[in-house]
Protein backbone atom coordinates (compact mmCIF):
# COMPACT_ATOMS: atom_id res chain seq x y z
CA UNK A 1 0.00 0.00 0.00
CA UNK A 2 0.99 3.56 -0.46
CA UNK A 3 -0.27 6.88 0.87
CA UNK A 4 -2.71 8.94 -1.20
CA UNK A 5 -0.99 10.06 -4.39
CA UNK A 6 -1.79 13.75 -4.18
CA UNK A 7 0.81 15.94 -5.83
CA UNK A 8 0.54 18.82 -3.35
CA UNK A 9 1.44 16.52 -0.44
CA UNK A 10 4.46 15.01 -2.20
CA UNK A 11 6.15 17.73 -4.27
CA UNK A 12 9.49 15.89 -4.36
CA UNK A 13 7.87 12.86 -6.00
CA UNK A 14 5.39 14.61 -8.31
CA UNK A 15 7.00 13.46 -11.56
CA UNK A 16 7.11 9.80 -10.52
CA UNK A 17 3.52 9.93 -9.25
CA UNK A 18 2.33 11.33 -12.57
CA UNK A 19 4.17 8.59 -14.47
CA UNK A 20 2.67 5.94 -12.19
CA UNK A 21 -0.86 7.28 -12.64
CA UNK A 22 -0.39 7.39 -16.42
CA UNK A 23 0.85 3.81 -16.35
CA UNK A 24 -2.27 2.73 -14.50
CA UNK A 25 -4.47 4.55 -17.01
CA UNK A 26 -2.65 3.18 -20.05
CA UNK A 27 -2.49 -0.41 -18.75
CA UNK A 28 -5.76 -1.17 -16.93
CA UNK A 29 -5.24 -4.94 -17.00
CA UNK A 30 -1.45 -5.23 -17.13
CA UNK A 31 -1.14 -3.15 -13.94
CA UNK A 32 -2.30 -6.24 -12.06
CA UNK A 33 0.52 -8.28 -13.59
CA UNK A 34 3.42 -5.97 -12.74
CA UNK A 35 3.49 -3.52 -15.63
CA UNK A 36 3.84 -0.53 -13.29
CA UNK A 37 5.87 -2.19 -10.53
CA UNK A 38 9.13 -0.42 -11.42
CA UNK A 39 7.46 2.96 -11.02
CA UNK A 40 5.94 1.89 -7.71
CA UNK A 41 9.37 0.92 -6.43
CA UNK A 42 10.70 4.32 -7.55
CA UNK A 43 8.00 6.31 -5.77
CA UNK A 44 8.29 4.13 -2.65
CA UNK A 45 11.98 5.08 -2.52
CA UNK A 46 11.09 8.70 -3.18
CA UNK A 47 8.54 8.67 -0.36
CA UNK A 48 11.17 7.24 1.99
CA UNK A 49 13.61 10.00 1.04
CA UNK A 50 10.91 12.64 1.41
CA UNK A 51 9.97 11.29 4.82
CA UNK A 52 13.62 11.36 5.93
CA UNK A 53 13.90 15.01 4.88
CA UNK A 54 10.71 15.92 6.74
CA UNK A 55 11.82 13.93 9.80
CA UNK A 56 15.13 15.81 9.90
CA UNK A 57 13.40 19.19 9.54
CA UNK A 58 10.94 18.31 12.32
CA UNK A 59 13.78 17.20 14.57
CA UNK A 60 15.64 20.48 14.03
CA UNK A 61 12.46 22.41 14.75
CA UNK A 62 11.88 20.42 17.94
CA UNK A 63 15.43 21.16 19.12
CA UNK A 64 14.77 24.90 18.67
CA UNK A 65 11.47 24.64 20.51
CA UNK A 66 13.06 22.63 23.31
CA UNK A 67 15.80 25.25 23.71
CA UNK A 68 13.21 28.05 23.85
CA UNK A 69 11.19 26.13 26.43
CA UNK A 70 14.23 25.47 28.61
CA UNK A 71 15.20 29.15 28.43
CA UNK A 72 11.66 30.13 29.44
CA UNK A 73 11.66 27.65 32.34
CA UNK A 74 15.04 28.94 33.52
CA UNK A 75 13.81 32.53 33.28
CA UNK A 76 10.63 31.82 35.24
CA UNK A 77 12.52 29.77 37.84
CA UNK A 78 14.94 32.66 38.44
CA UNK A 79 12.11 35.20 38.82
CA UNK A 80 9.58 33.81 41.32
Describe the structure.
This protein is an all-alpha fold. The longest helix has 42 residues, at 37-78. The protein contains 2 helices and no strands. It has helices at residues 14-26, 37-78. The protein is rod-shaped. Helix 1 runs antiparallel to helix 2 (37-78).
Order of helices and strands: HH
Radius of gyration: 21 Å
Shape field: rod-shaped
Sheet/helix structural class: mainly alpha
Name the helicity range. Answer: 55-70%
Task: Estimate the strand proportion.
Answer: under 5%
Outline of the structure:
69% of the residues lie in helices and 0% in strands.
Note the main attributes of this structure.
80 residues; mainly alpha; 2 helices; 69% helix; rod-shaped
What is the fold's blueprint, element by element?
Elements: H1 14-26, H2 37-78
Amino acid sequence: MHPPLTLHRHPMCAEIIEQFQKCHLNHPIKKFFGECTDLKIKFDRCFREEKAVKRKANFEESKKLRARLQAYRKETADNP
